[in-house]
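Dig into these lines:

——
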Amino acid sequence: MTPLFTGLLYLGLSLDLRNTVLAGAPSKLTLWAVPRNVVAIGNQVTFFCEGPLEAKEYVLYKEGSPDYPIPTILLKTENKATFSFSSVESYHAGQYWCEYISNNGMSERSDFLELVVTGFYSSKVTLSAITSSVVTSGGHVTLQCVSDQKYNMFILMKEDEKFSRPLPSQNIHPELFGALFTVGTVNLNQRWRFTCYGYDLSIP
């Protein structure tokens, strides 16, 4: 995906990008990205893969890429492995997962983590609420994602994670293209941060 930064709408719930391993649950691989999994082109990103004590070596994979698996660096004192891209490019975007090797062989793989690379296009995308960003408890709000570039698709993200399925671009004005997203049901305990991205199907 080669999306583009837009606007932000604050409604309320902060989410942790890293999946928490519950106490007492079986050990499972956890994969996350620092500073986050949505990165502007040219910036650095580091993957962290954490597993159980029996892990001897970690391997990072990228779906659909012939250049992977990638050997990772094992941090023995923290029982984690890392791998970094010093300068992210558009081709780094995609779904990643990791596995570890122990005396018992290869582990099950971690959950997928999607790396989203932004800033490929210079044209801005804007995000706004059709009525208001302040919503009555139990209600819904419609968000409008708009650009003067004719992207094929638009997608709404909540706290850097996919919130909805991508929607095809609609001609909402002779020189403007966009999509409408419905958000709800909203309650008093929620405060969400949304971001909208536009992209072309030829470079997802």
User: Anything to note?
Assistant: Residues 4 and 121 are 6 Å apart (CA to CA). The chain has two domains: 18-118, 125-199. The radius of gyration is 19 Å.
